[in-house]
Amino acid sequence: MVVDDDTTVRDVVRRYLEHAGYEVELAGDGEQALRLMAEHEPDIVVLDLMLPGIDGLEVCRRVRERGSTPVVMLTALGEEEDRIAGLQIGADDYVTKPFSPRELALRVTSVLRRARRFYEPRTVRDGNLVLDVAAHTATLDDMPLQLTTREFDLLAFFIGNAGKAFGRTELLERVWGWQFGDQSTVTVHVRRLREKIEQDPAKPKRLSTVWGVGYRYDKCSID
Asked: Mean of the per-residue pLDDT values for the chain?
């Protein structure tokens, strides 16, 4: 689903995505998008933040409340605060306007690949934190954790590489698959993970900051 109030943008994005093999549904505002999503859940949402009526941030928030449907945001070049807000809400990726429709199509494919990719059935465990990689679910103290696709991938990567420090650039490349990008994306996702897995996010015991390097995951349990 492509949500944008600019008919030209919608048409161009639709043509590129259809050329890439996707079926595309269009919405011109947030209210229409939410109504259509209630009728049939899209596999991914390409969402402009600046929408009339219900804005893109609110649409993203409601999409995230409904489940884990991936969201790729469209933002203007100078809207850094809105972009960070969208990532905090749970958007999986973003593209800044003006953008290359071809790049957007590649970003959509990348996000969908990560959301649908095949995992060998296995469980990743750290004490009371358990990730079922095959089912793409996570629990903490046997309670379900609501993680976005990116958050799950990042957490699985950290646990699978516990004890090793990774810089933001390396995490963007290895988890996001980006050769370049805004490093604040990693910062936002780490902050959100801490809010969900740490008893005290201000004093993390699992997901630590390594000053001058990046982040390191330290297991709370001994295998």
From this structure: 87
pTM here?
Answer: 0.59
Q: Nearest 5°: CA angle at 71, between 67 and 73?
A: 150
Dihedral of CA atoms 113, 115, 121, 123 in degrees, nearest 10, equals 130
Q: How confident is the model at residue 7 (pLDDT cuts 50, 70, 90)?
A: very high
CA distances from 110 to 23, 76, 105, 176 (A): 16, 21, 9, 8
Place of tokens 């009526």: 53
Give the model's confidence band at 9: pLDDT under 50 very low, under 70 low, under 90 confident, else very high: very high
Please name the amino acid found at residue 45.
V
Report how far residue 202's alpha carbon sits from residue 206's, in angstroms, rounded to the nearest whole number.
Answer: 12
Q: With b meaning 16 or more CB within 10 Å and e meaning fewer, what string describes 61-83? A: bbbbeeebbbbbbbbeeebeebb
Before 98, cis peptide (omega within 30)? yes
**Whole-Å CA distances, 135 to 118, 131, 152:** 10, 9, 11
Confidence of residue 132 (pLDDT cuts 50, 70, 90): confident
- What distance lies between CA 78 and its chain's CA centroid? 21
Instruction: List phi, psi (to 5°) of 93.
Output: -160, 170
The Cα 76–Cα 9 span in angstroms is: 13
